[in-house]
Amino acid sequence: MKLVIASDIHGSAKWCREVMRVVEQEMPDKVVLLGDLLYHGPRNPLPDEYAPKEVAAMLNGIAEKVVSVRGNCEAEVDQMMLDFPCMADYAWILDGEHQLYCTHGHLWNPEHLPPLAKGTAFVYGHFHVRRNEAGEWIRLFNPGSAGLPKDGIHSVGLFRDGEFSFVELG
Ligand SMILES: [Mn+2]
User: Fold this and answer.
1) Is the whole model's pTM more than 0.85, yes or no?
2) What is the 97 CA–ligand 1 centroid distance (Å)?
3) What does 90-133 look like in DSSP terms, one character per residue?
4) pLDDT, block means (10 residues), the chain with 170 residues
5) How far does the centroid of ligand 1 lie from the alpha carbon of residue 30, in Å?
6) How far is the CA of 48 from the centre of ligand 1 (A)?
7) Least C-beta-crowded within 10 Å: which of 23, 28, 46, 80?
8) CA of 41 to the centre of ligand 1 (A)
Protein backbone atom coordinates (compact mmCIF):
# COMPACT_ATOMS: atom_id res chain seq x y z
CA MET A 1 0.00 0.00 0.00
CA LYS A 2 1.13 3.50 -0.81
CA LEU A 3 -0.03 6.59 1.09
CA VAL A 4 0.58 10.31 0.74
CA ILE A 5 0.23 11.82 4.22
CA ALA A 6 -0.44 15.57 4.48
CA SER A 7 -1.16 17.71 7.51
CA ASP A 8 -1.85 21.32 8.43
CA ILE A 9 -2.53 22.83 5.01
CA HIS A 10 -4.33 25.65 6.87
CA GLY A 11 -6.12 27.05 3.80
CA SER A 12 -3.03 27.66 1.67
CA ALA A 13 -4.02 27.22 -1.99
CA LYS A 14 -0.36 27.46 -3.03
CA TRP A 15 0.79 24.59 -0.82
CA CYS A 16 -2.34 22.52 -1.38
CA ARG A 17 -1.54 22.68 -5.10
CA GLU A 18 1.91 21.30 -4.26
CA VAL A 19 0.30 18.47 -2.26
CA MET A 20 -1.88 17.70 -5.31
CA ARG A 21 1.25 17.57 -7.47
CA VAL A 22 2.76 14.93 -5.18
CA VAL A 23 -0.52 12.97 -5.28
CA GLU A 24 -0.48 13.05 -9.11
CA GLN A 25 3.16 11.93 -9.21
CA GLU A 26 2.95 9.22 -6.58
CA MET A 27 -0.51 7.83 -7.41
CA PRO A 28 -1.10 6.61 -3.82
CA ASP A 29 -3.85 4.20 -2.82
CA LYS A 30 -5.06 6.72 -0.24
CA VAL A 31 -4.32 10.30 0.76
CA VAL A 32 -4.23 10.70 4.54
CA LEU A 33 -5.14 14.20 5.74
CA LEU A 34 -4.25 14.79 9.38
CA GLY A 35 -6.42 17.86 9.96
CA ASP A 36 -6.24 21.67 9.98
CA LEU A 37 -7.27 21.70 6.35
CA LEU A 38 -9.06 24.97 5.57
CA TYR A 39 -8.84 27.51 8.40
CA HIS A 40 -5.58 29.31 9.21
CA GLY A 41 -6.43 29.41 12.94
CA PRO A 42 -6.19 32.45 15.21
CA ARG A 43 -2.75 31.48 16.54
CA ASN A 44 -1.18 31.31 13.08
CA PRO A 45 -0.21 33.93 10.50
CA LEU A 46 -2.04 33.84 7.17
CA PRO A 47 -0.36 31.21 4.98
CA ASP A 48 0.71 31.81 1.36
CA GLU A 49 -2.30 32.32 -0.93
CA TYR A 50 -4.86 31.86 1.85
CA ALA A 51 -7.96 30.67 -0.04
CA PRO A 52 -9.96 28.05 1.88
CA LYS A 53 -12.60 27.68 -0.88
CA GLU A 54 -9.91 26.80 -3.42
CA VAL A 55 -8.36 24.31 -1.00
CA ALA A 56 -11.79 22.70 -0.42
CA ALA A 57 -12.31 22.37 -4.19
CA MET A 58 -8.89 20.75 -4.68
CA LEU A 59 -9.39 18.29 -1.81
CA ASN A 60 -12.93 17.47 -2.98
CA GLY A 61 -11.39 16.56 -6.34
CA ILE A 62 -9.66 13.58 -4.68
CA ALA A 63 -12.43 12.86 -2.13
CA GLU A 64 -12.69 9.14 -2.91
CA LYS A 65 -9.00 8.68 -2.05
CA VAL A 66 -9.07 10.64 1.22
CA VAL A 67 -8.84 9.37 4.78
CA SER A 68 -9.19 12.44 7.00
CA VAL A 69 -9.21 13.20 10.72
CA ARG A 70 -10.23 16.36 12.60
CA GLY A 71 -7.68 18.99 13.56
CA ASN A 72 -8.21 21.54 16.30
CA CYS A 73 -9.03 24.13 13.61
CA GLU A 74 -11.88 22.10 12.04
CA ALA A 75 -15.43 23.30 12.77
CA GLU A 76 -18.83 22.14 11.53
CA VAL A 77 -18.67 24.68 8.73
CA ASP A 78 -15.45 23.11 7.45
CA GLN A 79 -17.23 19.76 7.17
CA MET A 80 -19.99 21.49 5.17
CA MET A 81 -17.35 22.54 2.61
CA LEU A 82 -15.81 19.07 2.24
CA ASP A 83 -17.29 16.01 0.49
CA PHE A 84 -15.35 13.51 2.62
CA PRO A 85 -15.79 13.02 6.38
CA CYS A 86 -13.20 15.05 8.32
CA MET A 87 -14.51 15.07 11.89
CA ALA A 88 -13.22 11.76 13.26
CA ASP A 89 -10.70 11.98 16.11
CA TYR A 90 -8.59 9.20 14.64
CA ALA A 91 -8.44 6.64 11.86
CA TRP A 92 -6.78 3.23 11.68
CA ILE A 93 -5.11 2.15 8.47
CA LEU A 94 -4.34 -1.56 8.43
CA ASP A 95 -2.06 -2.82 5.66
CA GLY A 96 -1.11 -6.44 6.18
CA GLU A 97 1.16 -6.50 9.23
CA HIS A 98 1.45 -2.68 9.21
CA GLN A 99 -0.86 -0.77 11.55
CA LEU A 100 -1.09 3.02 11.38
CA TYR A 101 -2.95 5.03 14.02
CA CYS A 102 -3.66 8.40 12.40
CA THR A 103 -4.76 11.44 14.43
CA HIS A 104 -4.20 15.19 14.46
CA GLY A 105 -2.16 15.44 17.67
CA HIS A 106 -4.07 17.85 19.91
CA LEU A 107 -5.93 14.98 21.64
CA TRP A 108 -3.43 12.17 21.22
CA ASN A 109 0.29 12.81 20.79
CA PRO A 110 3.67 11.32 21.80
CA GLU A 111 3.22 12.70 25.34
CA HIS A 112 -0.34 11.36 25.52
CA LEU A 113 -0.58 8.15 23.56
CA PRO A 114 -3.57 5.86 23.24
CA PRO A 115 -2.93 2.18 23.99
CA LEU A 116 -1.06 0.83 20.97
CA ALA A 117 0.25 -2.63 20.17
CA LYS A 118 3.97 -3.11 19.58
CA GLY A 119 4.99 -2.20 16.03
CA THR A 120 2.20 0.33 15.49
CA ALA A 121 3.00 3.59 13.69
CA PHE A 122 1.59 6.63 15.47
CA VAL A 123 0.96 9.14 12.64
CA TYR A 124 0.14 12.71 13.63
CA GLY A 125 0.47 16.38 12.67
CA HIS A 126 -0.44 19.48 14.71
CA PHE A 127 3.11 20.42 15.76
CA HIS A 128 4.20 21.54 12.26
CA VAL A 129 7.53 19.73 12.77
CA ARG A 130 8.70 16.63 10.87
CA ARG A 131 9.51 13.51 12.85
CA ASN A 132 10.28 9.92 11.90
CA GLU A 133 11.52 7.89 14.86
CA ALA A 134 11.49 4.17 15.45
CA GLY A 135 11.07 3.56 19.18
CA GLU A 136 11.27 0.26 20.98
CA TRP A 137 7.50 -0.09 21.07
CA ILE A 138 6.06 2.14 18.32
CA ARG A 139 7.17 4.41 15.48
CA LEU A 140 6.40 8.13 15.61
CA PHE A 141 5.77 9.81 12.26
CA ASN A 142 4.86 13.44 11.65
CA PRO A 143 4.90 14.60 8.02
CA GLY A 144 5.38 18.24 9.09
CA SER A 145 3.08 20.97 7.86
CA ALA A 146 2.25 21.49 4.18
CA GLY A 147 1.07 25.08 4.71
CA LEU A 148 2.78 26.52 7.79
CA PRO A 149 5.97 24.61 8.72
CA LYS A 150 7.85 25.86 11.79
CA ASP A 151 11.23 25.41 10.05
CA GLY A 152 10.14 26.83 6.67
CA ILE A 153 10.36 23.45 4.91
CA HIS A 154 6.91 22.62 3.49
CA SER A 155 6.51 18.85 3.39
CA VAL A 156 4.28 15.80 3.20
CA GLY A 157 4.89 12.19 4.16
CA LEU A 158 5.06 9.08 2.06
CA PHE A 159 4.29 5.55 3.27
CA ARG A 160 5.24 2.72 0.99
CA ASP A 161 5.26 -0.96 1.96
CA GLY A 162 6.05 -0.23 5.59
CA GLU A 163 8.60 2.57 5.01
CA PHE A 164 8.00 6.22 5.91
CA SER A 165 9.75 9.14 4.24
CA PHE A 166 9.32 12.87 3.63
CA VAL A 167 8.70 14.74 0.39
CA GLU A 168 9.65 18.41 0.43
CA LEU A 169 7.22 20.65 -1.45
CA GLY A 170 7.96 23.54 -3.80
MN1 LIG B 1 -2.11 23.19 12.66
Assistant:
1) yes
2) 30
3) EEEEEETTEEEEEE-SSSSBTTBPPP--TT-EEEE-SS--EEEE
4) 98 98 98 98 96 98 98 98 98 97 98 98 98 97 98 97 96
5) 21
6) 14
7) 80
8) 8
